[in-house]
Amino acid sequence: MKLILAIIQPAKLEAVKQALAEVEVFRLTVVDVYGFGRQKGHSEVYRSHELTTQLLRKVQLQIAVNEDFVEPTVKAIMEAGRTPPEGRIGDGKILILPLDDCIRIRTGERGPEAI
User: Fold this and answer.
1) Radius of gyration over every alpha carbon of the chain, rounded to an integer in angstroms
2) How many CB atoms lie within 10 A of CB 62?
3) Are 5 and 77 contacting, i.e. CB atoms less than 8 angstroms apart?
4) Cβ atoms 58, 9 nearer than 8 A
5) Most exposed residue of 43, 48, 67, 96, measured as fewest CB within 10 angstroms of its CB?
6) Which long-range contacts (CB under 8 A, 24 or more apart) does 78-84 make?
7) What is the percentage of the chain residues whose pLDDT exceeds 90?
């Protein structure tokens, strides 16, 4: 089992959800997050004052999958989350972490069956 954390642009959320549905990944959690990396924020003008914002809004997807679904899930996120044609800074990151256990609260099932 793996836990996939994908940090993407909010505008790409619907496209990524559609791509995940096409590879039969239907269970995910979406979290609004803020952060910065190579983009280093941006400047805005508000009431004639320039403001620099370092933390940019992103969306984090948390997806627990069995081993067979790791590569199709990653591929779907990459294809739908990338800015055409070859991507841009700020498109996001995908982190793949080992998942030791999973428990379904309702039934008490554990492991891959609980996902």
Assistant:
1) 17
2) 13
3) no
4) yes
5) 48
6) 79/19, 80/12, 80/15, 80/16, 80/18, 80/19, 80/20, 81/6, 81/8, 81/9, 81/12, 81/15, 81/16, 83/9
7) 72
Token pair 């793949």 in the structure block, residue: 96
State residue 41's pLDDT score: 64
Length of the chain: 115
Q: pLDDT digit string (tens) for 41-88?
A: 666 677 777 776 778 889 999 999 999 999 999 999 999 999 988 888
CB atoms within 10 A of CB 12: 20
Q: Is the pLDDT of residue 91 over 70?
A: yes
Q: Catalogue all structural domains in the chain, each as residue range(s) with its CATH number.
A: 2-114 (3.30.70.120)
Q: Whole-prediction pTM value?
A: 0.85
Q: Which two tokens stand for residue 56?
A: 């940019």
